[in-house]
Amino acid sequence: MLGVDGISVHIDGKTILTDVDLVVADSEIVAVLGPSGSGKSTLLRAIAGLVEVTEGDVTWDGRSILGVPTHQRGFGLMFQGYALFPHLDVAGNVGFGLKMQGHPTLTETVDQALHWVGLDAFGDRAIEGLSGGERQRVALARTLAPNPRLVMLDEPLGALDRNLRQRLLEQTRQVLEDRGVTALVVTHDRDEAAALSDRLALMRSGTIVQTGTMAEMLAHPVDDWVIDFIG
C-alpha cells in the first residue's frame, strides 16, 4: 500500500505541492485528475524519488521510502511522450531496464510483457515504424516488464488523438487489472480518469482537494470548483 502523508515540494523557491495526502491500496488504480499546472506530474516524481520531498513522508506498507534511491523503490514510471529509444527495436526498449539489471530470463520476460499488451510479434520492429497506439503499448510493456509493485502513468494517452485514446482506454485498463497492479494514473481528462481508475484524487493548486469515485464527487462535492471541473 502506498501512503503519501502531508508532503510538500518546493523547487527553486517555488511551492509546487502543499500538504498532499493520498492512500492507494494494493491492486487499486487511482487517477490523479486536475488542470494543467496543478502539480499532478510533480506528485508522481516525488513518489518515484525524482524530486525531493521538502516536508511530509512517502511510505510503502507503512515504511518510509524517502531515503530509498529511485531505482530501488520497485516502482515503474511511464512518462508522457513515452521516452522510447529510437535506436533500439521494440524488444530492446521493453527489455532495456531488465538488461541493465542483468535479468536472468530477459527474452522470456520481454516476450511475456509484449503479450500482455497485444504486441506478440513486434519484438524486432523499429520504433519509428510504429503507430502512436503501438508506441503507447510498447511503453506500457516496458513499464510492466519488471513486475513493479507500483505503476505510475503520466498522461498515458495524452499524445494520441481522441479517437485512438478512446480505443486504448479499455485495453489499458484491462491490462492493469489483469496484472493486478497498484497504479497511479495522471490525467487532465475527466472521462479518461473515470474510465481508467477505481477512484479519483482531484488536484488543484498543488494539493488534493477531494478523493472518491466520480459519482461520489458529483453527489457530494467539497466546493463549487469541483462541480465546475468534473460536472
Structure description:
- This protein has 231 residues and is an alpha/beta fold.
- The chain has 2 domains: 2-74 and 148-230, Rossmann fold; 85-146, no CATH class.
- It is 35% helix and 26% strand.
- The strands form 2 sheets. Strands 6-7-8-3-9-10 form a 6-stranded mixed beta sheet, with helices on both faces.
- Helix 5 runs parallel beside helix 6 (162-179).
- The longest helix has 18 residues, at 162-179.
- The chain is globular and about 50 Å long.
- It starts with a strand and ends with a helix.
- The model has no long low-confidence stretch (mean pLDDT 93).
Secondary structure topology:
Blueprint: E1 2-11, E2 14-24, E3 29-33, H1 40-48, E4 55-60, E5 63-64, E6 75-78, H2 90-94, H3 96-100, H4 106-116, H5 132-144, E7 150-154, H6 162-179, E8 183-187, H7 190-196, E9 199-204, E10 207-212, H8 214-219, H9 224-230
Parallel strand pairs: 3-8, 3-9, 6-7, 7-8
Antiparallel strand pairs: 1-2, 1-4, 4-5, 9-10
